[in-house]
Specification:
Two copies of one chain form a homodimer. By secondary structure, chain A is of the alpha+beta class. Chain A folds into two domains: 165 residues, Ribosomal Protein S5, domain 2 (2-Layer Sandwich), CATH 3.30.230; 130 residues, GHMP kinase, C-terminal domain (Alpha-Beta Plaits, 2-Layer Sandwich). Helices cover 37% and strands 28% of the residues of chain A. The first copy, chain A, contains ten helices and twelve strands. In chain A, strands 1, 2, 3, 4, 5, 6 and 12 form a seven-stranded mixed beta sheet that branches. In chain A, strands 9-10-7-11 form a four-stranded antiparallel beta sheet, with helices on both faces. In chain A, strand 1 and strand 2 form a beta hairpin. In chain A, helix 1 runs parallel beside helix 2, helix 6 runs antiparallel to helix 7 and helix 9 packs antiparallel against helix 10. The longest helix of chain A has 20 residues. The first copy, chain A, is globular. The model of chain A has no long low-confidence stretch (mean pLDDT 95). At the A-B interface, strand 5, strand 6, strand 8, helix 6 and helix 7 of A face strand 5, strand 6, strand 8, helix 6 and helix 7 of B. Chains A, B: It catalyses: L-homoserine + ATP = O-phospho-L-homoserine + ADP + H(+). Chains A, B: One of its GO terms (biological process) is threonine biosynthetic process. Chains A, B: Its EC number is 2.7.1.39.
């Protein structure tokens, strides 16, 4: 295979009680990437549409992720990478993760799969390190693996795949204000109250249980965040009101997507998701703030070949 | 029914990464209780063997738990409670929880079950409040419900029942030094580092997943505690060495049982458990410290009628 075209999905990290450890993969929100071998022994970003992003290989998240993979293999094979960005950088739904994960997935395919999908995660994390200063895995793991994923440990890296209850739907609202992951991370406190931490891990444990038992109501009750949300939600216009609107219209839970400013409402079934989406849309339109809005199933496949 | 005799099991709370939220129920370690209706409209502790404990109803954990249940029902029925204590108070394997949970279970049976088992938890928690100053549920819930239980929330109380991988075995070593839950709790810091909390909830999430998938190795790797164990283990003689002995002999994981001083080794299968038990026994004998030692399956039933 000389070339490949893929869909690189957006992802939802943190999920309220799962800060820095939990993420899930979205469908019908994502980038398209076209990657082909070249014969100049270089990784080149040859085209980016949709967004203005660095074209230099080592300043581009896809570029550094592929370089990391090739260095591990001692390979001198070159690749040309084209990216049609549909996920806006700084939105909080894994824009950099989609590009990093998509690039290493495609290159691995073109090299006849020297790595398993799971083994690609550390290479994609190098893109995250470039984007945010922190090589986190809670977006790249679900982008690559699909479904829900838990990062149990970073030293050594261990990612646990979790089941996805089939009726789960996600509504994502992205207020069109830019919020850099670095900035959003810098406002967090380095210490937390033990009692809040206990409440957080009680909720996370229950959320994991709910994924296995398909207990949608328990899942909703578990989407509670006493540590990060109270701090970060201040940066998101009308967060508390929007949460109220989503929950009043039947959402199971509501929280900040990744480091924001996007927010998510988790819903059971298409009908509820559609009315939550409409209510959130109406509320934000009234406030006069520009936004993007998505409704998605959980993508259990991850990256898709087009 | 006028009288009932029950087995009230010991329990293992916290389980390393699940401080204050997780517990499981043990088998063949526990108290026996004999409870009968009386016609003097009073709850009386009529006999306690095996340990010296308060006989006054309102100073006895079983007494206050039963009083709380009866007050909720506005019942004036009296009961005589006899307890054969086989679990030593202050051991860290739920001595007070066994008495509280056993008493409310028995009284509920004698009253023809006005409450479900789950509804008995708050009454049993009143016994815990008396014993430790803190109405925690991570021992009484597994004592009543059997198996593994997660306390998602206290306000309102929500307990989630979890599956028990069938080959799990627990070895418990109780160094015969007394450690009051109150004292063991007072040495904990009220604040923790966010990065340690993240690591803790990553492990707890993975542990819950491992219970569902019966992934014993993952369960073992998840039994890690960066927050409580480093502080509390100082109070337990030769903790680090004993942990090393258990792990070297094949234990999946090792940690402090409840607030200590008992420690537990989680093992896969009877054979491994037996050799871990023997190695721990030899090590502690060499050190010249008195101890009790138990090996148990996970008790998925909870309290048993004898």
């Amino acid at each position: 295979m000389e070339e490949i075209k893929i869909f690189a999905p957006a992802t939802l990290a943190n999920l309220s009680c799962g800060f820095d450890v939990l993420g899930c993969c979205l469908d019908n929100v994502g980038d398209e990437m076209y990657i082909k071998k070249n014969n100049v022994n270089q990784v080149r970003i040859t085209r980016i549409t949709g967004q203005v992003l660095p074209m230099e290989t080592l300043n581009n998240v896809a570029g550094v992720a592929v370089q990391a993979l090739l260095e591990n293999l001692n390979s001198t094979q070159g690749f040309d990478i084209e990216i049609d960005k549909h996920i806006k950088p700084g939105s909080g739904i894994g824009s950099s993760a989609a590009s990093s994960a998509g690039a290493v997935y495609a290159v691995n395919k073109l090299l006849e799969e020297p790595f398993t999908i799971k083994e690609l995660i550390p290479f994609a994390m190098e893109g995250e390190r470039l984007a945010s200063g922190n090589a986190h895995a809670d977006n790249v793991a679900p982008a690559l693996m699909g479904g829900f994923n838990l990062v149990r440990s970073y030293q050594p890296l261990e990612v646990v795949s979790l089941p996805s209850p089939p009726q789960l739907r996600v509504v994502i609202l992205h207020p069109l204000i830019e919020l850099k992951t670095k900035d959003s991370r810098s406002i967090l406190k380095q210490s937390v109250y033990l009692k809040d931490a206990v409440s957080q891990w009680g909720n996370l444990g229950a959320l994991i249980s709910a994924l296995y038992t398909e207990d949608y109501e328990l899942l909703g009750r578990s989407l509670e965040d006493k540590i990060i949300e109270p701090v970060r939600s201040i940066l998101i216009p009308f967060f508390d009101d929007l949460k109220k609107v989503a929950l009043e219209n039947g959402a199971l839970g509501f929280g900040i997507s990744g480091s924001g400013p996007s927010v998510f409402a988790m819903c059971k079934g298409d009908t509820v998701a559609a009315s939550v989406k409409e209510a959130m849309q109406l509320f934000y339109q009234e406030k006069g703030i520009d936004f993007d809005l998505h409704q998605s199933e959980i993508n259990t496949q991850g990256i898709k070949i087009l």
